[in-house]
Design brief:
- The structure is a single chain.
- This protein is α/β, with parallel strands linked by helices.
- The chain has one domain: HUPs (Rossmann fold).
- Helix content is about 35%, strand content about 10%.
- The protein contains 7 helices and 5 strands, in the order βαβαβαβααβαα.
- Strands 3-2-1-4-5 form a 5-stranded parallel beta sheet, sandwiched between helices.
- Helix 2 links the parallel strand 2 and strand 3.
- Helix 1 packs across helix 6.
- The termini are far apart.
């Protein structure tokens, strides 16, 4: 029987590749997505398509109302930054940072993992080509793993030990794309844009779009999704 793993699946490029990696490593994948009050539902639709295309064991979508907390361009009436960089992202943390999002998401993943008796949680955190979010750093992931093994009954009773796996943490966006291609990820199903049109067309100018386009360009591949600009 394959070992179980909970995989955080946002619907974006990184999480799709992370899911494919988990499966390639022999895990039975349980995908977890969130309706958290984000400005658009395109990423959730993409998450559903990706989960179906990669034939996960189960795809669970949880609703949490981070929009009531606000404080982010992704959940509040704050303008999404555009055209911030061309080659290298700025060092400041952008307005698209959602307060404590990865901590909240990983906490839900931890709870599900304990119920499933799954020792592994996968998250597509990246510390190379990213927007500068503090909860994507290796030291944060290590700290959460330490906490997870102090906070759960299963770990304290030593029936399981939780591992947080971040296979993309040291990879460039181009390397992530190349890895996904090798694993058969259908990137046309993914959605990365922070500020798409009502029709779901990616803006091409937000941090996420620019990092994605840079990645495909450096990988020598054509991005299969359309852009408004």
């Amino acid at each position: 029987m394959k070992p179980k793993a909970v995989v955080l699946l946002s619907g974006g490029l990184d999480s799709a590749v992370t899911l494919a990696i988990a499966q390639s490593e022999g895990f039975s994948a349980y995908a977890l997505s969130f309706s958290y009050g984000q400005r658009h539902v395109m990423e959730l639709k993409s998450a559903g398509r990706i989960a179906k295309s990669l034939d996960v064991e189960k795809h669970l979508v949880l609703a949490i109302e981070l929009g009531k907390i606000g404080g982010s361009a992704l959940t509040d009436r704050i303008e999404v930054p555009k055209d911030r960089f061309t080659n290298q992202p700025p060092k400041e943390i952008p307005a698209t940072y959602v307060p404590a999002r990865n901590t909240i998401f990983l906490s839900f993943a931890l709870g599900w993992a304990e119920v499933l008796k799954a020792e592994t949680i996968f998250i597509g955190a990246n510390a190379v080509d990213f927007s500068g979010y503090p909860d994507c750093r290796p030291e944060y992931i290590q700290a959460f793993e330490t906490m997870a093994n102090l906070a759960t009954r299963a770990a304290v009773e030593k029936s399981i030990r939780i591992h947080i796996k971040t296979p993309l943490i040291r990879m460039s966006k181009a390397q992530i794309i190349q890895k996904g291609m090798a694993l058969g990820v259908n990137f046309s199903l993914t959605h990365s844009c922070y500020d798409p049109s009502k029709e779901g067309i990616s803006c091409g100018r937000c941090d996420s779009c620019m990092l994605r386009r840079k990645g495909f360009r450096e990988a020598g591949l054509i991005d299969p999704i359309p852009y408004a600009g």
